[in-house]
Amino acid sequence: MSKIAYFPGCSLKGTSALYDVQVKMVLKSLGIEAVELKNWNCCGATSVAKEDHIMAVSFAARNLGIAEKMNLDKMVIPCSACYSRMILGQNALKENLDLKSEINESLSASVRNSIEILNLIEVLLPLALDGTIKAKIVRSLAGLKAACYYGCMLTRFPSKFSSMENSENPHYMETILSVAGVKPIDWGYKTDCCGASASVNDTETSLRLMSHIMKDAVARGAECFVTTCPFCHLNLDAYQDEFCKKYEIKQRLPVYFITELLGISLGLNAKKLQIDRHFIDAITPLWEQEIIE
């Protein structure tokens, strides 16, 4: 079994703890051990970056130093915000060697910029393309119409860096899920913002943004959303009843992490994956599709 460094970030240890469980289960079933960084710290998120650039880079640098000390060449970061902050921090250290030296002076594990940072889609894609996932599938998701929702932070960065093949119309998630039989829909809101933390301090704006996403997915015949971003998942799942009632949307769509649908297709137990913990029922639709018993 191969190993990869794993940075869960704060969300996967809090509101999206089920995602942490799923990532480890799915990767293990695909022959990859996710080795969590010891004593990692918050990535700094957007809030720190807005206030203090050097502090934000320092937050990322400390995690990078810990990861590089593990002597693994790759690190997976499932959270879109954490992935973005860590990538931007690493790039800042590569572009400013003086800043790198200054920050390294205060770190017990110095940064060498030797580790490759990957989001979960980038880890799964090669396994879809080389037949690894297909060879392990025991349950078909054939016919399930999914709106693959990337959100805004996974594909667009305030720098020259871009990890996806197309920032406005990415398709890696569609490629991965198609191997398991999912039928991804073509829709126009796959990289639109769900409102993120505005759901707390500007709820009306966030609900409006989510209603646009929902209306387009429903209009295109989607039966569910699939995402890798814990904030996108939380917003669309926890606030769905509220924004649907406010904007007179009758349908409700389950919101799955990609690890949930992949996990089911790989034969993992739905309750062990904690799919029953959603706000919008995500178990019954799988029964109705005869995907799980």
Could you explain how this protein is built, in words?
Helices cover 46% and strands 10% of the residues. The protein has 293 residues and is an alpha/beta fold. The protein folds into two domains: 2-118, Glutathione S-transferase Yfyf (Class Pi), Chain A, domain 2, CATH 1.20.1050.140; 130-288, Rossmann fold (3-Layer(aba) Sandwich). A four-stranded parallel beta sheet has the order 2-1-3-4. The chain has a four-stranded parallel beta sheet with strand order 6-5-7-8, with helices on both faces. Helix 4 packs across helix 5. It is globular and about 55 Å long. The two termini are 30 Å apart. The relative contact order is 0.14. The mean pLDDT is 94.
Shape: globular
Strand numbers in spatial order across the main sheet: 2-1-3-4
- The proportion of residues forming helix, as a percent range, comes to 40-55%
Low-confidence residue ranges: none
Give me the secondary-structure category.
alpha/beta
Q: What's this model, at a glance?
A:
By secondary structure, this protein is α/β, with parallel strands linked by helices. Helices cover 46% and strands 10% of the residues. The longest helix is centred in the first third of the chain and has 17 residues, at 53-69.
